[in-house]
Amino acid sequence: MSGFDRYDKVLRLFTAQKSTWTVAEISGELGTTSSTTYRTVRELVAAGLLESTVASSFRLGPAFLEYEQLMRVTDPLVRSGAVFLETLVEQLDVPCSSFLARLYGEKVMCVAEARTPNMTLQTSYRRGRPMPILRGATSKAILATLATRPRERLVHKLADIGPEGVAELFAELQSIRKSRLSVTFGEVDTGAIGIAAPIENKPLGINASLSVVLRAEDFSEPVKARVFSLLSTNAKLIENFMDDAQSELERRSGAA
Amino acid sequence: MSGFDRYDKVLRLFTAQKSTWTVAEISGELGTTSSTTYRTVRELVAAGLLESTVASSFRLGPAFLEYEQLMRVTDPLVRSGAVFLETLVEQLDVPCSSFLARLYGEKVMCVAEARTPNMTLQTSYRRGRPMPILRGATSKAILATLATRPRERLVHKLADIGPEGVAELFAELQSIRKSRLSVTFGEVDTGAIGIAAPIENKPLGINASLSVVLRAEDFSEPVKARVFSLLSTNAKLIENFMDDAQSELERRSGAA
DNA sequence: GCAAGAATCTCATAATGCGGGAATCTTGCA
DNA sequence: TGCAAGATTCCCGCATTATGAGATTCTTGC
Lengths: 256, 256
Hints:
Two copies of one chain form a homodimer.
Chain A: H1 5-11, E1 21-22, H2 23-30, H3 34-46, E2 50-52, E3 57-60, H4 63-74, H5 76-92, E4 96-104, E5 107-115, E6 130-132, H6 137-144, H7 148-158, H8 162-179, E7 182-185, E8 192-201, E9 206-215, H9 221-255
Helix pairs in contact in A: 2-3, 4-5, 5-9, 6-8
Chain A binds a DNA duplex through residues 2-3, 6, 22-24, 32-36, 38-40, 42, 56.
């Protein structure tokens, strides 16, 4: 194990299913001696990424909240979410959730969300939760606008749907690229409809999507028209907002 | 530089004031060669803690959102906030903000917050933001319930108020320990009143506080009575909630 | 197609992490 | 209070890894 891996391996053990680990468990899982594990854990505790709790076990530490707050203030996409999502779901005027999601390794991650108070449907997408990249409107809108190379690599690596399924998926992605809209029915959550518009910012290296999830029975023609229109315009607004945020940043650092 | 420090030093460069760094800037700041810096940054990017953006610079990466989401689901104190704070501010029925804060190194950090819709006063406390430990009701409630050793160490290390000021502070902390309530006037934000109740869970190693901030002019006698009573009861409720969460955890891991 | 900068690679050297086991510190319990 | 049983840190020789300087390759804008 080398470099940062040694720390990453430890941190990745902490999951929703098992959120506290003892040194003995970590050692067992990673095959290291307790001497080494203690040293590694101690360093992570010092940095605030872990903290000790009862029964000589450890949990994730407060530094993550600190960095998350920092991203909330500085990350262009996260900030866009805070600015646009609330208004978007209000204007949609139908029970729904809205998400800003982005590529994260070989997954898709939601970085901001908003929902109408009356949205009862539980959605799998949630801020900070990695989701599969090949299923759902949110993911497909992102996948569609990736550069050809990484797109094909991801599809071929992750698709387990046979060659005809892959061809079909590529065709769908092409059509999303054209219409700049992705619509899926119950691919992630049954009874839910997902509609997404891609968001790109090549210089910032951002591939993302703006999406709305609502109940199938609410998806009437007028709602559909409203969703399509608001998604398209808001996606553009967010692209512009990120450009502006970037210029602002450059202006400030240039002046400093 | 040794161990995790090398990564921590890089990550700590990213602040609200300067949220993107080039390799050259990092090298300059840390006194390392670009060769070394590139390697370090590459590892952090691979782990999702950094990501590259325009102009060969880097910003904080999405892994922080992932870990934050994990804490939101698993951390006993954070979860307590989600359960109790909304109801608390509703019942207070006066424009206010409410916080759950905890010790974080030599600072205090808010880990959950809620505010009434009509709360106009801007408060310095914000989720994920480290705050000084010697000023404000929120901080003093935590400081008061620390074990004697660390409490005295922190006060003597951080207080720049002369020996009589220190004595005064210790007296105030003692009285907070007795009454289990801390009240301060404009110590952090002018025009604001802070009221806090300590929250302890020795086995979990948690030293925290539940606090409310409101405008000085709203702090009438009936409001005061309501705040005191609700803070005390909710602080106890949260202590119990964390005990229960812990038992639940042990039960589950015992059953697994 | 070219140049300027960004990013990676190579390699000898210096520094650091590693495991095993001893030593020390906590903590629960009698 | 004293005494185990863990939990945690310390120590040290050895193996591994990081480091810096510079060459090399890759990008990107013009």
